[in-house]
Amino acid sequence: MVYSNRSDRGHRHLLLFFMILAAWEAGSGQIHYSVPEESKHGTFVGRIAQDLGLEVAELVPRLFRVASKGHGDLLEVNLQNGILFVNSRIDREALCGRSAECSIHLEVIVDRPLQVFHVEVEVKDINDNPPVFPETKKRIIIAESRPPETRFPLDGASDADIGVNSALTYRIDPNDYFALDTQNNREQTSSLSLVLKKSLDREQIQEHSLLLTARDGGKPEMTGTVQLQIAILDVNDNAPEFDQFIYKVTVFENAVNGTLVIKLNATDLDEGTNGDIIYSFRRPVTPAVLNAFTINPNSGEIRTKGRLDFEEKKLYEISVEAIDKGNIPMAGHCTILVEVLDINDNIPQITITSLTLPVQEDAQVSTVIALISVSDRDSGANGQVTCTLTPQVPFKLVSTFKNYYSLVLDSALDRESVSHYTLVRRRASVPRGHY
Ligand SMILES: [Ca+2]
Ligand SMILES: [Ca+2]
Ligand SMILES: [Ca+2]
Ligand SMILES: [Ca+2]
To answer: How far is the CA of 324 from the centre of ligand 4 (A)?
Structure first.
C-alpha cells in the first residue's frame, strides 16, 4: 500500500508540473516583438496591453508592471496607451556579444487577479561596428630572395556584429608584387595571406607600403584598414663591380717608394657587410707584381713598393679582386696595366773597339785612328746619343752606322807644335727634369 500511495503522489506532482509548464508556455509563447538595436528613445515596439488582451483603462487599477531581469529600463510601457517603447539605448553587442540570438525577456504582471505574462523582444543587429584590425600599422620583414608564390600569413580583422554585418572581405592596394589570398575552411574561419607575385629586389625597392582593407557585408558597409609596411631584407646578390675591366696607368721609373699608382673603387649595390669590399691582388700573384706594388685592402689604393726600373720591366699587368663581406662572398675583377715611364737615368757608354796609338806624325789625312761605339740604356730621346769631339783638333768623327763612329785624322799633324791630344767625350742626350 505504501508503495501505491507513493506512486499516486508522484503522479500528482508530475501532473502539476505539466500544468505549470503549459501555463508558462501559454504566457511566453504568445507575444514576440522585435526592435533594431540602437533605436531612438520612444521607438515603438508593440501594443503590449492590447496584445495581452488587457484594456488600457485597467492597467493602472490592476497595477500593471513590467519586470525585466538584469535589463533594467531598456524598455518601458506607456500606461496611458499600453504601448511598449524603447526607453534607453539598446546595444546588441553589449547585450549578447557574438551570440546569433539576442532577446530581452519581459515579465508582465497584473493584480486582481494575479496574472503573469512573458514577452520576448528580439534585438535585431544593425551594422554599427566596423571591421577592426589588431593594429593600425603592421611591419613585415621579407628577404629579397623569397621566390614568387611564397605565402605570408596576415592577421584578419574582427567585427563585433553578427551575420552579414560581420562577414568580411579583404583587398589590398593594386601593386606588382603582392596579392591577397583568403582561404575559407570548414570551421568558417578564414586564413588570410599575402602571396608574392614576382621576385623582390631590395636594390630597387627597399620597402613596400600597402593598405589592407576589410569590409563587412552590411548595408551600408563599414570598413577597417591596416597599413602594411613590408621591409625587404638584403641578400648578398650583387658582386662588387669596377667601372672598367682594364685601367691603364703610367708611373715614372724613379717614383719614390709608396707613390700612388691608382685608387680603385668598386661598387656593390648590397647593404651593410654584403656591400663592404676588400681589395686584393688576384692569386696567383706574379713575383714581379708582388715585389713592385702593394694594395690597401680597404681603400683600394695601389702604391709602388721599392724602386721601379724601366730598363728592367716596362709593363706590369696587375689582376685585382674585390670581394664583399657577405655570408657567401661575391667577387668582381679588373686588370691594371702599369706602364713604367723611362727617365734619363743612364749615362751613355762609349766603347772604343779598336785604337791605333800613337799616331805617326806623317800619317795621312783620313787615317782611321779608333773605332768607337756608343750606347745608352735609356729609351727614346733619353737614349739617343750624339758624339762630338773637343774642338780645334786635327781629328774628326765619322759616323759609320747608327751609334758607330770612326775617329779619323782630319789634317796633317805637326809634332813640334802639339805632341798629344786629349779627346773629351761628350754626352749629347736630352736630360729630363727628373734626372
Ligand atoms: Ca551591431
Ligand atoms: Ca559590421
Ligand atoms: Ca641585395
Ligand atoms: Ca654584394
So the answer is: 5
Residue type at 351? T
Residue 265 CA, ligand 3 centroid: distance in Å:
19
**What is the grid cell recorded at 10?**
508522484
CA–CA distances in Å: residue 61 to residues 65, 76, 267:
11, 18, 98
Architecture of domain 346-435: Sandwich (2.60)
Q: Tell how far the Cα of 222 is from the centroid of ligand 2, in angstroms.
A: 6
Ligand 3 centre distance from Cα of residue 326 (Å):
10
What does the pLDDT look like over 70-117, one tens digit per residue? 777 899 999 999 999 999 999 999 999 989 899 999 999 999 899 999
Whether the CB-CB separation of 397 and 405 falls below 8 Å is answered with yes
Q: Which CATH number fits domain 246-341: 3.50.50.60, 3.40.1550.10, 2.60.40.60, 1.20.120.140?
A: 2.60.40.60
pLDDT tens digits for range 389-414: 777 788 888 888 888 888 888 888 87
| Ligand nearest to the Cα of 325, by number | 4
Provide CB contacts within 8 A for 269, sequence distance 6+: 203, 238, 275
